Amino acid sequence: MIRISEFFLLCLPIYIISLHIGKDRTITILYIKNRRRRRTMSRVQINASSDPFQATENTGTLKFYGQSTSRVCKVLWCAAEAGVINIERAEIPLPKLQAKEWYYKLNPKLTVPTMRDGPLVLNESNTIVQYISSTYSKGKLYPDNSADVALCMQWLEYGETTIASSQTPVWFGVTKDINHKTKKSPADMDFVRGYDLPKSIKAWKGFEQHMSDGRSYVMGNKFCMADFTIGIQANRLKKCDGFGFDELKLKNFPYTSFWLDRLEARPAFQKYVLPFGA
What we know:
The protein is an alpha+beta fold. 43% of the residues lie in helices and 19% in strands. β2 (12-21) and β3 form a beta hairpin. The longest helix has 31 residues, at 146-176. 33% of the residues are buried.
């Protein structure tokens, strides 16, 4: 069964096409027509019994697996900043994905995001950011020399291995009452305060030092792929108000706060990051 709805937003005709394919899946295509280009965002909602995206040799349509998490939001934000027009999403809860053999074959780590672009499958969010930036941003996000590429990768890794790795246990403990290592409740808050919190403070102090020359973005005055990973973690830090710890509040990191203000002004950040809680 196919259902087509039409409405207008900002004087642009918008069509919602719902396709019910058997009992297993529904594809909803949002089609926006304007004078310059056509953008499609497809959301595939299925019972996860089979892979909704089959391998193809055709590139240019990015296909993402997984409901919105911080890292899924990161790669969607990157795709929007790069100007990718065609995006498809299989918004399947991670536990359902992890229970499926087809997803294990696609991504043996059983994590999200996973991305397809034609025959290419990637499952590391920083790698996805680098790929999208180099392939689709037409030089906007990806540097034109190897030294700056290396510096960008260094800050992408700093965001994951230093900031996220120290902040995530604090976030789990405070917001979920879960021990990050065991994934069980209750959290060991004495350990969080004595071990994880100092590491997180140190990580943010290191980034604050880097930004203290007043630069607008991580690599200077131009937004690029180096901003994505730390940007996601800074958004979490702000929304959780330092997780209740005065030492982690953004008032202690004024240059980081200034940089985050600039990210929050970007339309793609507003669309893909700000709506995602923390």
